[in-house]
């Protein structure tokens, strides 16, 4: 990354008019000082027509733009070759940030541009671009002549009437998706079509160790989970499948008789009006989720219910599994909630999505699964579990908040990526000021 600008600000507590004007609320812990370094990641050119995409390591910036009448992808400020069209939602970086892929079109046919080179195969449609977690493999769903199939490392798979749910295991050793032939759906695991047929499939998920596979299925009007090949009870609807970090436990939520509830290790929980945000602690011993009753939302951690709010999001455990945090809204104001303690009120706490789903994928429980997948993370813990940070909006500008201290305000644009800790007291975010995209490096002093 080329750093065109480097501005360092050391912020002292109570230094109003400087980079931060911090204050200490009555009864609250002392607000720390922050050292903030803004580094220019890139400037957005006129003619941009896509959202801005940042690599996982926050060192690269890409977007689509129309420059002098030509459609080009702009990578780290450098316009790439021109195409007839570019899918503005398609750019994706590999997890190690070394590879970039996107979808482009010349005349009527679409193709993938990977590692800067257009691939030779052209298709009627392309969706769900995906790198394996180890960044070594690249896959997507392609359509040609009325059939769909998966392309992995440029090799085309079997043709089906429809394909969806493409996913790699966390260890990059396995790949699965669901396919439709005629009126029935089935799972394809490591290129082998499984025997069992269903009326619909959704929520395909590998366990963290890559040894277990779960998904949701429908037969007639009844929905059920299938985990390790074993079908669970029938429900009216279902969603939100998660495995514990040690891969030994599984949870999801289900609807029956007009009420939602969690199903954890096969055991049904209390009936609620709505349920979401299921999460296991890093040590796999604790479980939490959001629930709604009588129009109000609350967190439930190991069966203990939190306070009532108008809405909630971003439920997360600390790395040591001892703390729980999320963001909540009450009377039009947003704030962080850490171990039940409410933080300062803001116009909004940013919930930056954890993953980016292909908007063309539609499944029977699309509304349920998409809401869970896009819940994002608002509050994050540092690796020592002693510090918290998030991005908040003050009227029409955003600030990064670390242990209660605020940075200077940034553009009204939605933050490009969520705040992330690099060490116990070091963190970063990617924000905007005017047309400049900034890597914001923060040290808690």
Task: List the SSEs and their pairings.
Elements: E1 6-10, E2 34-43, E3 53-54, E4 61-67, E5 70-75, E6 78-83, E7 85-86, E8 92-93, E9 100-106, E10 109-114, E11 117-118, E12 125-131, E13 138-144, E14 147-152, E15 155-156, E16 162-168, E17 175-181, E18 184-189, E19 192-193, E20 200-206, E21 213-219, E22 222-227, E23 230-231, E24 237-243, E25 250-256, E26 259-264, E27 267-268, E28 274-280, E29 287-293, E30 296-301, E31 304-305, E32 311-317, E33 324-330, E34 333-338, E35 341-342, E36 348-349, H1 366-373, E37 380-381, E38 388-394, E39 397-402, E40 405-406, E41 417-423, E42 426-433, E43 436-444
Structure overview:
The chain is an all-beta fold. 2% of the residues lie in helices and 52% in strands. The longest helix is centred in the C-terminal third of the chain and has 8 residues, at 366-373. The radius of gyration is 23 Å and the shape is globular.
